[in-house]
Amino acid sequence: MERKRADDSKAGAVPLLVPVDRFGFLKQEHANSPQRFTKTRSSSNYDKEERRVTKWRKMIGAGGSDWKHYVRRKPHVVKRRIRKGIPDCLRGLVWQLISGSRDLLLMNPGVYEQLVIYETSASELDIIRDISRTFPSHVFFQKRHGPGQRSLYNVLKAYSVYDRDVGYVQGMGFVAGLLLLYMSEEDAFWLLVSLLKGAVHSPMEGLYQVGLPLVQQYLLQLDQLVRELMPKLGEHFTQEMINPSMYASQWFITVFSYSFPFPSALRIWDVFLAEGVNIVFKVGLALLKYCHDDLVKLPFEELMHALRNFPEDAMDPDTLLPLAYSIKVSKRLEEMKQDCEKARAKPAQMANPVQL
Predict the structure, then answer these.
(1) What is the DSSP letter of 119?
(2) Partners of 25 in the β-ladder
(3) What's 193's domain CATH number?
């Protein structure tokens, strides 16, 4: 028996009683976690949270039965409440409702099971290799071949079969992992489908296709917005030869779920699922704006470090998101998108001249 216990300890078994935060991440003294700051919760805060949950339950209805009706009647109320943050106990259900994934699930019974059990994927070895890198400090994903890692493998494998053109890209693991913390495998799979195929907003699949075309487009647009909204910082980036691909790619590929404080990532995801990718631009610009005066003074190496390690106060959702909401980018992004589409159309027109 003693020999067996020694062998178990050598195998690196996770202790049964591990201090974790309210989201399930190991506390900072035990592991590096995306959850880098917490706020004390007084009894008045608990009372406020309970009232908020009650409002949300009335808005949603049993199992989401009243959701569509409420959204049609009071869209501005829904938008305001989502921006304040969805109650954590209801987050999984609401994410499915606002993303359209619940409808996809109901329209495709048995499809997920077919993809997981009966299909094979060319990406299986890549997925297995990356599994342990996804939220390694969260108790759900820590155990090798445990339930969390198995669920993550199943979702990613199923999607790589469902859409073989996209297959699997490493950043998808953080998106799927975040979803699995709030819903079942099948629900997470259909939410991933709704995002990449564009059930409600513009399709995201271009973030993960060969060459990452949508990432390239978004980075060009971000660069232009920085130059227009923060010209001094844009000029400093030019002088130091900094471009968005050096610091912002993961913002778009994982929607801030990679190495961003978890409470902030959740609040961003609430808005992202409801309003689309514009919030990623707004949050990125808000980070740069908040730190603007410090960033413009830094030489290259220090600047790169700062862009990859923003201070905790800058990432506090109660500071960051109001600043992000104040930045208006929708009209300008649409203009840049149209310019991009026109530029793509010109070579095609030249290759196929009109015959008179």
Answers:
(1) -
(2) 138
(3) 1.10.8.270
User: Rounded to a whole number, what is the distance in angstroms from the first to the last CA of the chain?
Assistant: 90
355, part of any domain: no
Closest CA to 159 of 176, 180, 141: 176
> pLDDT tens, 111-128?
999 999 999 999 999 999
CA atoms within 13 A on the CB side of 323: 17
Residue 335 placed within a domain = yes
* Spatial contact of 286 and 324, defined as CB atoms under 8 Å apart: yes
Total number of domains in the chain: 3
Give CA angle at 73 (72, 78), nearest 5°: 80
The answer to whether residue 6 is domain-embedded is: no
Q: Which of 23-37, 90-104, 189-203 is the least confident region?
A: 23-37
Neighbours of 137 (CB within 10 A): 19
Residue 288 domain-assigned (yes or no): yes
**Is residue 56 scored above 50 in pLDDT?**
yes
Beta bridge partners of 255: none
Show the domain range for 72.
Answer: 55-84
Chain centroid to Cα 228, Å, comes to 26
pLDDT in the model for residue 16: 54
Q: Is the same domain home to 101 and 192? A: yes
26, β-bridge pairs: 20
Q: Which two tokens stand for residue 317?
A: 């959702």
Q: Please tell me the distance from the alpha carbon of residue 270 to that of residue 273, in angstroms, as a whole number.
A: 6
Q: 239 burial class (0-12, 13-18, 19+ CB within 10 angstroms)?
A: exposed
